[in-house]
Task: inverse folding
């Protein structure tokens, strides 16, 4: 019975959340998911550079992450900020997500062109991006 | 020696055959999000599948008839129909996921889009069912599926803090930002993946295909009580790899490539090659089993001639059902629906259908007219009833949890 009441309370609180809170929650969720995709791309590139992964599966993993990130970015971008505070949050999350998507795209291009130096350079960028997204997700 | 070899082969096949796309995806996904905090569900699920698969195997060995045939006869057409619909729909959904899994494994290895591999995968499944002997197809893909042991080797090579993994496994609660609702949702998904209905129908129909008698009871028990738990250990190794590589980095698993990645991290290209072959074998083997199970359930309910122990033209309607189900799978996947998402949903829907699948088996296994002295004893019935309660809870909670968590998000 308590469990049911808890769930009902949670549902009603979620439904009553203000526009700022709603955007914050959506941003956190998007940032968490994006951090995971950036992390996958980083691990894949690192394994490729260490010679532990063939080019094809490595490229596939990065391409999958890029595709997933595009979905996350467009999903978040389609939201409508209703207050000034929400607009600020929207811009902050949107920029971080865009940067992450760009970083993964750059890696994908480098890998396709067999440019290992550029790919190696991007590992640090991906790490930073994942870190920033993880902080935003909190 | 010959008997011992047969028993060993059966056990190895059961280990390799235990893991399918549902186990691969769900265990990796759960390991990445919850570490080993949900490992207990795999243990509970394996005990459950052992309990009911043994019951189904015993029914076949004693009566010489498959479970679904007896369900219709014992419970009547109407109740049998409800069981048929629930089990059949879940099995078709699982078949769709398995065909998608084969195509994704090929895409990962070749770079050619999975949508192009899918029709080829379905045709290959049909050809193998049509041309290859039952015992051969079962043992070949079961043994190849054993290559997934590479996950256990990878976990060992990753050198995790075993104490921490054990500590996670013995503290069943959500971690980080995860809520109790998502924890419960994925517990149900793991339970559904371990106790997928088709496993029991395939196991019992396979017993008829291989003409089990009372003398085969020891082999059947060895397959179930040694093979399945070792298969469960494989599932835990998949979750363990994801827990070690992905959890600290906050990576969530949403592709088959991510499931395989920890083996590359631990063992390099060789590990990746082995895991890709293992994934192909596991999904292809499971696609054969689910396609056959679709044919078994419908044909046995309708009283048609079925099975691979007769020529295809003598069981034409059985083969037609298989072809239609394969076509349906290809058409569904051609809508570009994500096969990994289909897998995630299939294990949850499997959990919903579990009571309808397992209750009739329990009833038949208790019927002295079919089972004689081999009917269930008190201890087995006690355990089976506890599990039935668990299945019922999982079945009822699945939909509300799916809504509340937005399918585990």
Result:
């Amino acid at each position: 019975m308590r469990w049911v009441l808890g769930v009902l309370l949670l549902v009603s609180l979620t439904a009553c959340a203000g526009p700022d809170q709603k955007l914050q929650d959506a941003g956190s969720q998007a940032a968490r998911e994006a951090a995971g995709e950036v992390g996958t791309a980083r691990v894949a590139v690192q394994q490729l550079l260490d010679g532990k992964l063939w080019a094809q599966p490595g490229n596939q993993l990065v391409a999958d992450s890029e595709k997933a990130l595009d979905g996350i970015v467009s999903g978040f971008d389609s939201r409508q900020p209703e207050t000034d505070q929400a607009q600020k949050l929207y811009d902050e999350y949107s920029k971080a997500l865009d940067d992450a998507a760009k970083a993964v795209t750059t890696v994908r291009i480098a890998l396709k062109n067999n440019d290992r130096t550029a790919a190696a350079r991007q590992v640090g960028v991906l790490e930073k991006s994942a870190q920033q997204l993880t902080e935003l997700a909190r | 020696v010959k008997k011992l070899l047969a028993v060993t082969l059966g056990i190895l096949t059961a280990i390799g055959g235990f893991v399918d796309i549902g186990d691969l995806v769900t265990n990796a996904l759960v390991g990445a999000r919850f570490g080993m905090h949900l490992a207990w569900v795999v243990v509970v699920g394996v005990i459950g599948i052992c309990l009911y698969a043994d019951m189904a195997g015993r029914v076949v060995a004693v009566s010489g008839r498959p479970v679904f045939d007896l369900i219709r006869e014992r419970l009547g057409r109407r109740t049998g129909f409800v069981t048929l619909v629930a089990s059949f729909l879940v099995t078709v959904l699982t078949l769709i996921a398995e065909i998608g899994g084969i195509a994704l494994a090929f895409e990962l290895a070749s770079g050619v889009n999975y949508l192009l591999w899918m029709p080829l995968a379905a045709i290959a499944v049909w050809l193998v069912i049509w041309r290859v002997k039952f015992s051969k197809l079962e043992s070949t893909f079961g043994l190849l599926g054993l290559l997934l042991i590479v996950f256990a080797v990878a976990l060992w090579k990753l050198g995790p803090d075993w104490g921490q993994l054990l500590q996670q496994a013995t503290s069943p609660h959500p971690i980080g930002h995860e809520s109790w609702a998502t924890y419960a949702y994925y517990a149900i998904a793991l339970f559904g993946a371990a106790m997928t209905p088709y496993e029991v129908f395939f196991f019992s129909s396979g017993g008829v295909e291989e003409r089990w008698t009372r003398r085969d009871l020891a082999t059947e028990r060895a397959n179930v009580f040694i093979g399945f738990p070792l298969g469960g250990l494989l599932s835990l190794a998949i979750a363990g790899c994801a827990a070690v590589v992905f959890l600290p980095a906050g990576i969530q698993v949403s592709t088959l490539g991510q499931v395989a990645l920890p083996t590359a991290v631990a063992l390099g290209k060789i590990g990746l090659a082995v895991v890709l072959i293992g994934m192909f074998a596991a999904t292809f083997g499971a696609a054969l089993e689910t396609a056959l199970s679709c044919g078994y359930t419908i044909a046995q309910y309708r009283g048609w001639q079925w099975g691979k122990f007769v020529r295809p033209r003598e069981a034409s309607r059985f083969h037609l059902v298989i072809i239609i189900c394969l076509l349906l799978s290809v058409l569904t996947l051609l809508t570009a629906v994500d096969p990994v998402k289909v897998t995630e949903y299939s294990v949850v829907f499997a959990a919903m259908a579990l009571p309808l699948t397992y209750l009739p088996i329990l009833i038949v296994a208790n019927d002295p007219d079919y089972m004689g002295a081999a009917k269930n004893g008190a201890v087995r019935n006690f355990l089976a009833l506890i599990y039935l309660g668990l299945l019922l809870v999982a079945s009822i909670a699945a939909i509300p949890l799916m809504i509340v968590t937005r399918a585990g998000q």
